[in-house]
């Protein structure tokens, strides 16, 4: 079959990008190879491990199982876009509570955690574990990741109490 | 992994999708992509054309009318799990959708995509069978409805015609006194059910419905267990015999050691006990 390029436009970390690509390009490859955003990792490449998790219109998705053309017109946030003027509370939490060892799953774990806290700012430990079900980490045994998310939740509610703002990050 | 090359189209109406389906021998519809794309990446599927149906307005939305809940084919698992109408009228469907895959998978996968893919190890077939749901299908000859009991023909094969598009799933509202459970034993790596039992008991115990997925070549209703429980009532002593009946009559294959029937026995029993305890 002859290669037919398709034009795709989406917003990635707040910036509009347009590229002509083969329709078979996966979102994760689009981010890494077209845009050079290599923070999003390819782990299992079979929708299991969650290392490739990004936010698509605010929802955590596995970008190895989304075609870039399916993100047409959408807003994508990658680990590079999580940080604003300062570290995102999830990043601070992972830093403070040693939520990583080798770091390979960390971008996906952080994006999944950020999504969880956007849906449920005060999760129980059980809810955190359920929320992270789609992330595989071979180093930490998950204990420190759970603590990191708890730390992030505490930081976020502290910040919202101080500023009176509804949301942080 | 890259899929084989394909032509990409977007359909904006069901008729357009149906027309595109006849443009080649290998045309596939793409909803959330969580069944089709993994197959394409493994090159188990290599369609010439992929038609994105996510933007078709008719495939979206959840409504209830005259005791029937209509769930648009593009409804994602996360919404099936959390939608207040589905939770109120057909909680068994919500409970099943809530344990599909993981959070990220539920954010993308759709009820229509999963049902049309018809993986024999999928969760949803058990729920739609136990709920006597109907598939609303649009094709060249108009709209028809296929009962769930006739929809799953074989692994990865449904009763959908070559040019037909699943538009929605119609689920009869459960009785207000119904208690229900979807209990699965997830495979530790894939999350797919090794066995999944969907059951509900309602109308003062006179309605007992149960379907089992994962363990047979397609999901199936446990009709012998249903009949026994309807006659005997669901209680601690009848549950044991019902589980035994379900196991004996389960259409399982390659079960030399009896492990699959044992799983049926144990999981039917647990699911019924959970239902009667009002747990979920």
From TrEMBL, chain A:
Pathway: Alkaloid degradation; nicotine degradation
Domain of life of the native organism: Bacteria
Organism: Sulfobacillus benefaciens
Keyword Oxidoreductase: yes
Pfam families assigned to the protein according to its UniProt record, in alphabetical order: Fer2, Fer2_2
Gene Ontology terms, MF aspect: 2 iron, 2 sulfur cluster binding; metal ion binding; oxidoreductase activity
Domain 2Fe-2S ferredoxin-type, residue spans: 6-82
UniProtKB keywords: 2Fe-2S, Iron, Iron-sulfur, Metal-binding, Oxidoreductase
Stretches of the chain forming a coiled coil according to its record: none
Protein name: Carbon monoxide dehydrogenase
Automatic annotation (TrEMBL), chain B:
Domain of life: Bacteria
The FAD-binding PCMH-type domain, residue ranges: 1-176
Assigned keywords, A-Z: FAD, Flavoprotein, Oxidoreductase
Keyword Oxidoreductase included in the entry's annotation: yes
Entry keyword Flavoprotein: yes
SUPFAM superfamilies with a match to the protein in the record: CO dehydrogenase flavoprotein C-terminal domain-like (SSF55447), FAD-binding/transporter-associated domain-like (SSF56176)
Segment forming the signal sequence: none
GO molecular function terms listed in the Swiss-Prot or TrEMBL record: FAD binding; oxidoreductase activity
Matches recorded under SMART domains: CO_deh_flav_C
InterPro entries: CO_DH_flav_C, CO_DH_flav_C_dom_sf, Diverse_Substr_Oxidored, FAD-bd_PCMH, FAD-bd_PCMH-like_sf, FAD-bd_PCMH_sub1, FAD-bd_PCMH_sub2, Mopterin_DH_FAD-bd
Protein name according to UniProt: FAD-binding PCMH-type domain-containing protein
Organism listed in the record: Sulfobacillus benefaciens
